[in-house]
Amino acid sequence: VPIKNVLFWTSIASVPLGLTQLLLISHYNRELGIPDGAFIIGDDAVLSILGEFAFLPTLVLAARLCPPGIEAVLFATLMSIYNGASTVGTEVGAALTKALNVTETDFSNLALLTIICNVSSLIPLVLIGWLDGVGDESQEEMEAKGID
After folding, report:
1. What is Dmax (Cα atoms) for the chain?
2. Residues 22/111, Cβ–Cβ less than 8 Å
3. 23-39 in b/e burial notation, b at 16+ Cβ within 10 A?
4. How many helices (H) and strands (E) does the chain have?
5. Considering only CA atoms, which of 83, 104, 105, 85 is closest in space to residue 93?
6. 95 CB-side CA count, 13 A
7. Which pLDDT belongs to residue 137?
8. Smallest Cα–Cα separation from 63: which of 144, 140, 139, 146?
9. Which residue of 34, 55, 57, 94 could cross-link 29, Cys pair, CB 3.0 to 4.6 Å?
10. At what angle do helices 3-18 and 36-65 cross, to 10 degrees?
11. 114 Cβ partners below 8 Å, 6+ apart?
């Protein structure tokens, strides 16, 4: 399966899974018989596991593109970019929270904030065309060419 397809579909699947938080915000989980605590733990565990799973294609892509001998540098750079993007995402989320006036006492725009944050994860898909043909070769094909 091409890495581009895996990245595309994990991004698409992350939106409805992230929007499950709306069940908690609206307390619909209680109508389904799921206590808040159980829903939070289950939701957090599932989203964390799927988030790690979604990151694997990036690591595979990096491993396939990495020239021999600089694997550690590439991995450190990739992790730095990942951590930097996480920090930027946190700050943008905080700014959006402030702009929507979501506070510890006013949750009236929390559902909107959740929707915006989840749908914004689709923005990188605009650039997915850059991955055309990247990482499409299997390990056997790469070894046959002497790349490995």
Report:
1. 62
2. yes
3. bbeeeebeeeebeeeeb
4. 7, 0
5. 85
6. 6
7. 65
8. 139
9. 34
10. 160
11. 18, 19, 21, 22, 25
**124: its two tokens:** 């990188």
C-alpha–C-alpha distance, residues 53 and 43, integer Å: 15
Please give the helix or strand (H or E) that residue 74 lies within, else none.
helix 71-99
Q: Which two tokens stand for residue 129?
A: 């065309």
50 CB contacts (<8 Å, ≥6 apart)?
10, 13, 14, 17
For helices 36-65 and 71-99, angle between their N-to-C axes, nearest 10 degrees: 140
Cβ atoms within 10 Å of 11's Cβ, excluding its own: 16
Q: Which helix (H) or strand (E) holds 34?
A: none
Q: Is 139 helix (H, G, I), strand (E, B) or coil?
A: helix
pTM over 0.85: no
Reported residue count of the chain is: 148
